[in-house]
Amino acid sequence: MSSLPSDILAAIEDIVQQVGLGRVRAAAAQLGRLYAQGKAPREFTHEMVAAYAAMRLPGTFAAMTSVMQAWKDHVAPQRALRVLDVFAGPATFVLAARAVGLEIAEAVCVERSCAMRQLGEELLRSARIPTRVAWRNEELTEFLERGGPSFDLVVASYGLGEIPAPWRQRELASELWRCAQGHFLCVEPGTPAGSELVQSIRTMLVEQGGTVVVPCPHNGRCAYATAHRGWCHFNVRVGRTHLTRVIDGAEASFEDEKYCFVAASREKVAWRQDGRIVGHPRLSQAGMQLVVCLPNGEVKYVTVPKREKHLYRIARKLRWGDSLPPELHLWLRGECGGE
Ligand SMILES: C[S@@+](CC[C@H](N)C(=O)[O-])C[C@H]1O[C@@H](n2cnc3c(N)ncnc32)[C@H](O)[C@@H]1O
Q: Which residue of 80, 191, 201, 211 sits 20 to 30 Å from the alpha carbon of 250, by its own alpha carbon?
């Protein structure tokens, strides 16, 4: 179960207290209504950013942390990175990078809302995060128009989908890819619309010479989206804090944050990829049922039988989003007639 680090949680509690619980509650309800309609506020008030920190940040932080962990496991960067984080919000990426121990030389955070930038500054200060962060408090288009240096990693999380025109979302993604001398990473909500956007960005990245790093173990067409008519997404369970329950009045002790993502690289590295678990592993009478995306581009529904004791033990530990362990990949190649 994911949760925000205690220093960040304490800072958010302070912020909510300063703004006033009643006002944060009203802003949280307003934000919730907007997000449920697939919209986003044009201008964040201080009440809204406090509500965002208490109600949305635990989920976006959890998704970012899972994504950054997967990315770091595959790329294993050898030096501190220079990162461009657009739609930065309260510096969610920088907070997640600390959580997974990713070394950042400098993060340039582009965020148009003053209130959101101030929240980010406050959280970074309270948590004593030493990362050098340069805020660009402006519209992303203004930032991109000025051109400028390229970055080891460009991150766009929970932002492109908020751009109203779909053609502009794709155009912006392409401009951001141009700013990436190494890697580009995009995260969106785990909805059909979020997945469609991530799929189209993935296609653009491959067409423009990128190699998909995570989550897909291949650069080909997505079988999940085509043959299986599903939307490829992942899930992380997020613990609900006392503060969250006080604000929205719901009693549940956790919620599921569903997300879609893609990361591509300009580097022609042969990533070791054995496949990925793309659904909840399920225990049945016959064994562990897995949905696996394979390096040959296929999505397979497989059951690891109980009689395969060693493999079954490995399969029991797998979670949605995990890489397929090499032993299981080898076994699958034998079972399914190779790739
Ligand atoms: C949903 S929040 C995501 C924040 C953060 N990336 C996260 O994952 O928690 C989107 C942020 O992007 C900012 N934003 C939206 N459109 C923007 C634009 N055109 N230029 C700069 N910032 C923008 C909003 O102000 C908001 O803070």
A: 191
Which pLDDT belongs to residue 338?
45
Domain edges within the chain:
6-265, 276-335
Q: Which residues of the chain have pLDDT under 70?
A: 269-272, 335-339
Whether residue 92 has its Cβ less than 6 Å from ligand 1: yes
Residue found under tokens 């054995």: 274
> Is the Cα dihedral 53, 56, 59, 64 positive or negative?
negative
- Looking at the CA of residue 63, tell me the nearest atom of ligand 1: 8
- Taking CA atoms only, the protein residue closest to ligand 1 atom 4 is 89
pTM: 0.95
**71 Cα to the center of ligand 1, angstroms:** 22
Structure token digits, residue 318: 């797998």
- Closest ligand 1 atom number to CA of residue 159: 10
Q: Is 60 in the pocket of ligand 1 (CB under 6 A)?
A: yes
**pLDDT value at position 227?**
72
Give the DSSP H or E segment for 267: none
pLDDT tens digits for range 52-109: 999 999 999 999 999 999 999 999 999 999 999 999 999 999 999 999 999 999 999 9
- DSSP state letters, 157-182: ES-GGGSS-HHHHHHHHHHHHHHEEE
